[in-house]
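Good morning C.,

I know you're traveling, so I'll keep this short. The sequence:
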Amino acid sequence: MSFFIFALLLSVFKFLPYTPLDLISSLLIILFISWISNLVFSYAYDAPTNVESVYITALILFFIITPAQGGVYTEFLPFAIWASIWAMASKYIFAIGRKHLFNPAAFAVVLTAFTINQFASWWIGTPTMLPIVLIGGFLVIRKIRRADLFFSFIVSALITVTILTVLKGSNIPTALFKTMANSAFFFFAFIMLTEPLTAPTTRWLRVVFGIIVGALFTPSLHIGGIYSSPELALVIGNIFAYLVSPKEKLFLKLKDRVQVATDTFDFIFTKDQDFSFKPGQYMEWTLKHRDPDSRGNRRYFTLASSPTEQDIHLGVKFYPEPSSFKNHLLALPVGGEIIVAQKSGDFVLPKEKGFGLVFIAGGIGVTPFRSMVQYLIDKKEKRNITVLYSNKKVSDIAYKDVFDRAQKELGIKTVYSITDKGEILTENMQAGFINAQVIAKEIPNYLNKIYYISGPHSMVDAFENTLKSMGVPSSNIKIDFFPGFA
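The tokens, ready to paste straight into the viewer:
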């Protein structure tokens, strides 16, 4: 939405060839058609609708379809209506294993090009829009931790542009400057390419995905009369992503809800089919409910359960004034249904069992470690692991029974750090924050360990900086997007 506000300001001062009324009316039309279409398809397919996803797709379409100008809608309306309908339809009709295959906006404009001969203009691609695209885009990839995908695309696209420029005998600096100065290039990379549901779910596959899309991005590429375009490159990339990434969707029913700490519950679900995952991975959780708030009905949470367990465990911390999603999750009755899909993440145990590992967790960020440790207990697999687990109060410690059992059976030591003063501490508990001194004290030969950090983004960043300042190599620090805090 910040992109739209910025564009609106530019139009007021005539830095764009559209009036504020042009932009507002065009956006409202796309939003309305998208919302109605999604409602219809959701009802027809009896599938939960995600309002947030509808708004995001509509905004993307708005920025790549030329707005109406001067109140003339003759060219705009057919394109906007057709693209909006098919963007929503793609989520339901073009789905395999009950999971949509293509980026909705990209698929819609590819289809309009081939059916009604209308092409996306990518009007956002102006130098005046570049500052907000860069600022907003970097904030997005920082939050979702997809720099690997972004930079693999950028490098691949620029290399392709360079090669094609050389073959044509044109000026390389000029070609690269034109590409980099075009904000559509960055808008595509920041916003469309990183859409999680149609991208691969692990790091190195994301890198390959970025390379493929980057190589196909430039319009100079063509086969006969069919020329490449950003949207066509992404649709082809989506096919690759589907082939290499699991897309199963599970319907889980609530079996039990157990309070494991203050304001923290372990939701135990039975699954409708068997599926495999690695300890520490996360999934997309969709809870159908009426009147969802602005955050929608979809979240990403780490699986707290081990693959060795029969049921699926979800650990959730409830804060004051929770979202509508969490309110309905807490009120979900036994037998109530939730949908999970898109298992993702590289935050998993290394295959090599000889490495010394340190797990650093803050609050509910302990869930991937609960998954890993429970897996090791069930497999009776001993590894050299120390867990450093920070909470405000003793009562905030979650899954303590699992970690205590791991210490008895496998020798996995957990040090509980309690930051609030006046708490009564017991065995393996210490007052204060986890810092460099605590790490050096609790982790002999700490420079040769591999560190896993999970928790709020600010905590993860702080610990990463602390470890680096202690001389721990970046290659020995493993962090991952922890969606439960997004």
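Safe travels,
E.
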